[in-house]
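Tokens in:
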């Protein structure tokens, strides 16, 4: 079936057309209109500005997705849309557009959870991926671990109790003076730090050690606030000792070492709880997804862990780690075959808990 999918949960307006069936998972088009340049001026996403930008971009994105797929709107079998979680104003733009489009075409409207969509991006990487599996979603707003017995059933077994890993990367990067979003720059800097360590340019005594985000108990939960605070305080102390202002540039070598130590703490902490989850659940397959899943150090760390544990790892390509419409279409297919439908009364919800409480999705 042909699914037109729409995503507008944060600062990317996205639309895609995917062809999905039991035998096929094909992306026919995948259009993303990014707002990064707009929000870089403020060092983070401004919800009101993001919502207005979605209004301007959504119709052109859908038109282009349909055109590049080589079809017409009349060929569409269903419309899938992200309805939760996310920034409420941004979500409402996509939801209302999708409701009007599905109603005018006389096709089913499929409400899709944003976090499930990130996981579903992995379906395009390997035709063998199927439930059951574990899913680790690491993004700007979420760091959560799920047991997925069916493609439409997600059981959260672990999550962050405060900040998400992506938010922590961005905050530390911003304090160091990196351009928003700081994730990619932190990734590259961490690589420089590792190279400096390997070359012996930084001695063992010079290396920074930050606290682990893995909570010291038998849960699968994380806490990134302490790690983030420790890194921010370290940066402030460096500037104060050097007599620099709060926004003054830091020595490149120091920045690389901070990024290296911070990234190492994030990766080691995530892998520690992930290893515990694999042992306790006996999982044989794992999906690593979300925007932070594009981080090369996290990908390598999880890959090594899975090789050690004998677990099959599935990761979307970098192009599908960030928010996009194709991932919504993939999850939309599985929601569709499970009976998920929505009418013109579909609402958007900032949190997944809110969506669940409102029982927005009615399964036939």
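Residues out:
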């Amino acid at each position: 079936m042909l699914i037109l999918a729409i995503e507008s949960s944060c600062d990317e307006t996205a639309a895609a057309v995917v062809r999905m069936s039991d035998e096929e998972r094909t992306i026919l088009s995948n259009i993303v209109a990014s707002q990064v340049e707009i929000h870089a001026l403020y060092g983070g996403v401004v919800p009101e500005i993001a919502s207005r930008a979605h209004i301007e971009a959504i119709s052109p994105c859908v038109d282009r997705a349909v055109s590049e797929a080589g079809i017409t709107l009349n060929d569409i079998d269903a419309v899938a849309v992200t309805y939760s979680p996310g920034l409420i104003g941004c979500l409402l733009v996509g939801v209302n557009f999708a409701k009007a489009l599905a109603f005018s075409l006389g096709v089913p409207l499929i409400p899709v959870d944003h976090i499930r969509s990130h996981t579903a991006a992995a379906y395009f990487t390997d035709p063998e991926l199927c439930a059951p599996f574990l899913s680790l979603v690491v993004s700007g707003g979420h760091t959560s671990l799920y047991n997925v017995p069916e493609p439409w059933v997600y059981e959260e077994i672990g999550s962050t109790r405060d900040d998400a890993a992506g938010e922590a990367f961005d905050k530390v990067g911003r304090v160091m003076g990196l351009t928003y979003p700081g994730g990619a720059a932190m990734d590259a800097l961490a690589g420089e730090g590792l190279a400096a360590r390997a070359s012996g340019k930084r001695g063992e005594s010079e290396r920074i050690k930050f606290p682990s985000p893995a909570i010291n108990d038998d849960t699968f939960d994380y806490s990134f606030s302490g790690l983030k605070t420790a890194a921010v305080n370290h940066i402030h102390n460096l500037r104060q000792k050097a007599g620099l202002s709060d926004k003054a540039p830091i020595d490149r070598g120091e920045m690389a070492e901070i990024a290296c130590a911070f990234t190492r703490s994030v990766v080691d902490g995530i892998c520690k709880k992930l290893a515990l989850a694999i042992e306790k659940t006996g999982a044989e397959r794992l999906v690593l997804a979300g925007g932070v899943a594009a981080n090369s150090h996290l990908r390598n760390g999880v890959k090594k862990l899975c090789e050690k544990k004998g677990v099959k790892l599935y990761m979307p390509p970098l192009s599908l780690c960030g928010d996009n419409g194709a991932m919504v279409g993939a999850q939309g297919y599985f929601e569709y075959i499970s009976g998920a439908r929505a009418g013109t009364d579909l609402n958007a919800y900032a949190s997944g808990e809110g969506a669940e409480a409102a029982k927005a999705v009615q399964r036939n």
